[in-house]
Task: structure prediction
Amino acid sequence: MAGATIELGGIGYPVLPGSYRRWLAAASAPKSGRVEFAAAFRGQRQALLGDPTRSWDATGVGPTLGGQGVEPWPAEAIHADGMADVPTAALRAYATVAANAVYIGVGRRLYRTVPLTTGSWSSLAVAADFGAGETISSLTTLGDEVIVGLGPGTDGRRYSPASGGHSIWRVGSRLSVAIAYAGQLVYASRTGATASTAGQQERIRLSLTRHDGALLLESRWLDAPVVNMGLFAGKVAIATKSSIWLLGGQPYPGTPDDATTAADEYRPAEWVGDPEPVFTHGLWTAEEDFSFLLGFGGRLWTWVAGAVRSWSGAAGAGWVDEGLSGSACHGGCVAGGWLVVAMRTRTDDSELWATDGNGWWRLARAAASGTRVWPVALNGAGNFDLLAFRAGSTTYDLSRMIWRSASLHAFRASGEWISSLMDAGSADPKHWRRIGARFAAPEPRGNPASTDSVTLSLAWSIDGGATWTTAATSTVTGAATRIADLEADLPAVEARHLQVKVAWSGVLDWAPALTGAWADWTTLPPRSRRRWRFTIPCADGRIGPDGAPLPLTGRELSEALHTAWQTGAALAFTDIDHAATGLTHAARLISFEERIPAPDDASRWGQSTVEVELEE
Result:
């Protein structure tokens, strides 16, 4: 054929002789800038730096200065107990507060903590043993007594903290799930696959104390088997496998049916009010769904379908995903002003998370062998706020989440903060030149008389946190240190993303507050790009690069070029000297101009010339 040939996007094109031109385009000037981000306020779990107030997962820090910074948190202690019952992922622990102590039910036994007013911790004491073969399924406090559910096969018990004894709460009462409300007990007799009587899984019972002291029961039937109960907005929240219900109302003791009561004044004892269906969630998928059901921060929180979700209480609203998900959940509680959740990740690690309603903070992380299960609120017993069991062990973790004094502080011995993935708003690789962290507070953070030293470190990663390189360390001494900076130049770090990690170690009773971090970047050294300009004759019967007739007509050749120009996609391009160089370039068609010599015949003959410009 006449003229040289090229190939673009897998299509061979002839080139009009004399139209070919190739040159290097001038490079653009390099750009530079700084990525700055705050360290706190709305927690972790932000993977990409679209919001500069969040960070990625890290262990052992929490918000301070009203969310303007972070510091090591919470204070922790490990206690080896001598419990006779060992909590596991399958054997749950239940808890309630009664008579100035926290009562914890595990297996066949009810345990008691030190009094809430006691300043030091000691091992749990056995308050009651319900015998071989029994397993506690629920705990709640009714009046001065602890009501103990023992599942679908045994009558529930009432335990008296004053006497230390227990008895049957009511003959025939099978308390699989129970909660105290309005001075009465609301419970489900049977739940799960063990139910043998049709309709019992869907029934709730409401206790009612008649005017003469007699204990009565009323029943209500719901739409599906009852899974769990909690308190929300002054009512009982009931989760079934299909829906969420709210039960309010009041118990009415009735009037005496005797000669002193007129016939038109008599009214029997009754529960005034019925459960109201709120919404049908249709999400129940596994046994750990609704493993907790808690009102917190004006919302109802639970675990369902592999994630923590909340409901605002608004009419017509449903579950909202709260950004914490995993393969399983092992309970939750409200402790020290935080909602705490124990969960297992997709990689089978155990994690303990806490939220104040604004964002999540990771309290602990361990391999499956150290799985944290069934967190319990301690309400200040032993000057701690939270107890987290370890599956298969009588050793558990204690956490102080609230600052009490210079000696009873909430500082963790070590902690770390990790930034989200930073890309400086560009998908192109960059040269990351320098990183830094700022510590600042207008007051001493911790014991103001402390002279202890805290070690700070600064590290970076370009592989999503798989590996870290330490850039700088510094030791600061004494709580009088309110302002500090940690900065470091980076080597030739070229990457699309960068992460920064700040860590504290050696913390005893004070720590500097991290208020921000930053990273400086520059675009990579500019490189001149090749450009090509030539004219392609588009006509029927053209010969391709291999000497064979082109399979496309002139109109089809023109349309292929027009499509490449419109989409702007990078295409494989082989130049006129491909046979000698063997090179294939990635190029975009940035200019397209078509000329048709005989417009009236263009649609019939498909003949035109197209001038194109390509850029590497």
